[in-house]
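tool=predict chain=A
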Amino acid sequence: MTLPRIPVIIPAYRKPEQLHHCLACLERQTQPVDIFVRDNSEDNIYFTAAVNEGIRRYLATDCPALLLLNQDMYLEPDAIEQLWRFMAAHPQCGIAGPIEALKDHPERLAKGGGLESFPWGRHRVAPVDAFRHDERLHWINGVCLLLRREMIEEIGLLDRNFKFICSDVDYCLTARERGWQVWRVGAALGEHESDGASTGCGTNPELEQIKVKDVLFFAKKWLTGDLYRKLAYGGAVLTPEVIAATMRRLCGEPEPEPVSSDPTIASSRYGHSHSPLPLSYYHSPRPEVLALVSPQARLILDIGCGTGALGSGLKARQPCHVSGMECVPAVARLAAEALDAVHVGDVMEILPTLPEAHFDTIIMADALEHLADTDQALQCVRRALNKDGELILSVPNVGHWSVLRDLLEGRWEYRDHGILDRTHLRFFTRNSAMAALARHGFDVVHIEATAVDLQPPAGLAAALREFGVNAPTFEQDSRCFQYLFKARKARSSIDLAPVYQ
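tool=predict ok
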């Protein structure tokens, strides 16, 4: 295969030492390259206009692809070749990017491409070795993007309404909406210094203002539009909380406490809106659940898998076959891109059809409370587990003090969020969840409490104490929004120590 010459477009901004290092890495590339540097140091036309200037320049040539590269991204010698070979072998790949390792910690990468903290999730840090595989994503960080020429000719230049940030994410979403695929190529690697023009903007009011405008335009274009809803979750809409979180990150404000001022609204682990659904509802990697899954598990079922974020993390951590179960077809289609198999439909209809004694691990993370017949569900799950199989179960705690307080005041009001989510059909405390597991032949071997907030109001505890309620037990149990159980079919001792740590 003859390697074509690939144009490289670099929008530079001050910090000449970064540019020199970047150019030195390009000189060592195994792929022939042409280099175009648009220096914004004096006449700053900003990222998007600089990139578009380079694209126009090279569309007049016969190049098959163009590489957009930040000056603080330092590529390994074969990185561009690996990107091009992948793109050439995958005709639907319109955009490809490398593994983006951190220069100061090259064993770690800035993992982007997700929607759960969209569009700022690009900076979630994860081990490089866990992601040295090809992965189809929603978007790739604009520090290094290989763009197919045919795609550029179809969808056009980067949207000039973005001056500084978000144009890379916007371009990826536009490409996906037009039928092109976006991939991270595991064989391509670069180190990102992450100290370029887009960082430290809090010291530059002009740049900060431009960033705010870019994010607001991004929200107007995608996060509330029919196009994004169709692209992502087929009906989900942005909530004010997601917009507020984006603006907090943008302006450098601290994140709020995991539990909001209204204690019946749980943390982002599970307290999402159901009507309408926020974008992050179906896309959560659930690290606390992943940590409980046995590293030796090879056959795994995730009931209520959403977009497959948890299963994708499991597949990156260990060799395994992950099946999912999801009732929303649009979400299941996204899960099918990440998992080995996805069952689409009513969970209660699918569960009895599962093969007997088949799975090493079955996950029900915030799923059981949505089912009408929890007894039948647990019976089917036990039947589908092999003799040493494990069940990972999480349920919200209806014994939280906020629910008890409202009940004592004569209120039981369903909400779009949290413990009294309007789609919850069943409710559990720690003891009732353990009793349900025991009733169907499970032994709980580990319990954790998630989203633990502050102590209940002293007046509430004192009032209950007058009625003979065990105050220490109440104060412990009523702080927990959610319980996470690990259970097995075999008998073993219970470990309660981690619950209140």
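The chain has two domains: 6-192, 287-500. The two ends are 58 Å apart (CA to CA).
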